[in-house]
Design a protein that fits this description.
Distance between the termini: 42 Å
Low-confidence stretches: 1-17, 95-183
Shape: globular
Mean pLDDT: 84
Number of helices: 10
Number of strands: 28
Strand content: 35-45%
Helix content: 10-25%
Radius of gyration: 26 Å
């Protein structure tokens, strides 16, 4: 078996032509891609994030081809992001040049300075007559002037001894096409190295913030480090580690009813608690897909303010991730994940250091797994539709879940595991419409249990389902002014199961929408930016949260009755806020915010006292790299 796997890896290594390192799900590049997707300038596959850095580099090249359609601020943002992804742009394979700029619809005002073949005084017309670039004729670096060309899919070379964005360390052949349309130095890295087979980028992570919540001041700080690199034509790897510490009164240690990612606190001293976040990946890729072993965040389904299918609410977990995009109209995503059940397995307990005068009894957690797939169809240019399903199970690993294309929800029925060793299956769907231009409409549905008889009788509250619908209008009245409206509803019992080992959770946090079961959310937000790096948004948000009742009720409605949607005790949240973020340099950010909140809760225990009633919160946070 191992021999066959090894042969398979060797075969795939021979087929690969791309490299995969992922771009974090909250990177600002996605804002630009979403905006230009709605404007029909590019086609951005946004149903699953993160994307790889190489994928994003390809989209940046496509944006450059349509640069004449961009607003001036979008041009500046695009330039800024080109420096961020300069390494990946330089790794792009050579492409044939177009016959003429007119055929590509590029006005002469956007033409670059006259490109030159080194050692020859070629004119602009000579370039028009050049149809094919030989493989050995692409750049060995970005040149002495720190140049990269992105006026068309450029024949960048993987560096031959020189740093990307630095002077070339190797010779450039006499026939090398030397394009110098703009001066674009690669962004600063703490350390960088590039040669023909290996590249590495290292960056520090740091942040410090001061916040006032209900009249009390607290602080948050985080140091860390990240790096990523590529090997050959097929291998990519990354690592990121951050250590957080929060100190002071009115800090949210539980992080339950909030979009902030949950945390497993590993140390508490006085009013300070600490937790860590570590991510990493190793990936192998080929022309139309990749496979990764990864510990990172991901989102499935559309939603600007939360996702009902897969969100970043729970801490990251280890996965085997598979992606295939064999044709332009079809994409497929799959992962097999290892999550933490927080359920002790007393049958596996053992004594450690029995020779000690005080041996300790170790009780491990029961193993828990989650597997999911999602198939996406580009039905037409303006419409994407996705269908998928997931399955949560434990404590024993089930090898059939390694088959990416299964309908997992029925596996218990098919394998005879009902009640004895069953799992929890769910299905989901998603859509995105980008029509008319500058509009984006989207929605997701997550279905755990559907009772058709009750549904036909008009009983919607007894259905274990969740959904999100939303719309965004870009460039309303003036460029760069965007308005979003989104509603999410999660019915009672979603993400839960009578077998706690099969709940749709990791470390006690749901994998879906942060509001959790028996809740809904409505949010209106306005975004505006008037020069590169400075972004503002204001929002109004309403959240209602009902009771999280005893799970026994859900499985014996004849005895206990049902729980209606938003059945009390009820919590009501209203929030009105504004936020400004400034990024003067790559990954150097200054964030300031203010929020007014009014919260009432009929449950006397659920909501901390400092959040109840009318409150004000504001903060100032400086960060680098995170």
């Amino acid at each position: 078996m191992l021999k066959r796997v090894f042969v398979f890896v060797l075969v795939m290594a021979g087929l690969v032509v791309a490299q995969v390192v992922f771009t974090r799900v909250d990177h600002p590049v996605y804002d630009l891609l979403s905006r230009l997707d709605a404007r029909h300038i590019i086609s951005f596959n946004s149903e699953v994030k993160p994307l790889s850095r190489m994928e994003i580099a390809g989209l940046l090249i496509k944006i450059e081809e349509n640069r004449d359609k961009l607003y001036p601020l979008e041009v500046e943002e695009h330039r800024f992001l080109q420096r961020e992804f300069a390494l990946e742009l330089a790794k792009s394979l050579p492409h044939p040049l177009p016959l003429s700029y007119k055929e590509r619809g590029i006005p002469t005002t956007f033409l670059p300075p006259t490109p030159l073949l080194k050692g020859e005084g070629n004119t602009h017309n000579d370039l028009h007559n050049l149809r094919v670039i030989q493989k050995n004729s692409f750049l060995s670096s970005l040149g002495n002037a720190h140049n990269i060309s992105t006026t068309h899919p450029s024949p960048f070379r993987r560096g031959a001894g020189g740093e990307v964005g630095e002077e070339a360390g190797g010779e450039v052949g006499d026939n090398t096409l030397y394009l110098t349309p703009n001066t674009l130095a690669e962004r600063f890295w703490l350390y960088k190295y590039t040669d023909s087979q290996f590249s590495l980028r290292v960056s520090p992570l740091a942040g410090y913030g001061v916040r006032s919540v209900s009249g009390e001041t607290n602080t948050i700080r985080w140091p860390g480090l990240k790096f990523f690199g590529y090997g050959g034509d097929w291998f990519g790897a990354s690592f990121e580690y951050v250590d957080f510490g929060e100190t002071g009164s009115n800090t949210d240690r539980a992080k339950r009813l909030t979009p902030v990612t949950g945390a497993y606190v590993n140390n508490t001293t006085g009013t300070t608690f600490e937790y860590s976040d570590v991510k990493g990946s190793v990936s192998m890729s080929w022309k139309w897909g990749y496979i990764s072993i990864i510990k990172d965040y991901q989102t499935w389904g559309h939603g600007q303010f939360g996702q009902v299918i897969m969100s970043t609410k729970a801490p990251s977990f280890t996965q085997i991730r598979f992606h295939a995009n064999p044709v332009s109209w079809f994409r497929f995503n799959y992962f097999q994940g290892w999550v933490n059940s927080l359920i002790y397995d007393s049958s596996a307990a053992f004594w450690s250091h029995t020779e000690s005068m005080s041996p300790s009894r170790v009780v491990p957690y029961k193993d828990k797994y989650v597997v999911a797939n999602l198939a996406t169809f580009s039905v037409m240019k303006e419409l994407d539709v996705s269908l998928g399903n997931a399955f949560v199970y434990g404590p024993n690993f089930r090898f059939e879940t390694l088959i990416p294309f299964l309908y997992y929800k029925v596996m218990d029925h098919n394998t005879g595991r009902i009640r004895g060793d069953d799992g929890n299956g769910m299905i989901f769907s998603d859509f995105k419409v980008r029509f008319p231009q500058d509009y984006l409409f989207y929605g997701s549905t997550y279905i755990d249990v559907i009772n058709l008889r009750d549904l036909l009788n008009g009983r919607f509250d007894n259905q274990w389902l969740a959904f999100t619908v939303g719309a965004k209008r870009f460039n309303l009245f003036i460029p760069m002014l965007d308005v979003s409206l989104e509603y999410s509803r999660v019915n009672p019992w979603n993400y839960e199961n009578r077998n706690d080992l099969a709940s749709y959770k990791h470390l006690g946090y749901q994998l879906g929408h942060w509001i959790g079961q028996n809740a809904d959310q409505l949010r209106l937000q306005v975004n505006y930016s008037h020069f590169r790096g400075l972004k503002h948004f204001v929002y109004a948000e309403w959240v209602r949260k009902g009771v999280e009742a005893d799970i026994a009720i859900a499985y014996n409605t004849k005895k206990y009755g049902t729980v209606a949607f938003l059945e009390g005790p009820l919590r009501r949240d209203f929030r009105l806020g504004l936020e400004t973020t400034w990024e003067p340099l790559h990954e150097l950010k200054l964030r300031g915010y203010y929020e007014f909140s009014s919260i009432s809760d009929e449950d006397p225990v659920r909501t901390p006292a400092y959040l109840r009633g009318t409150q004000h919160a504001f903060g100032l946070i400086a960060s680098y790299g995170f």
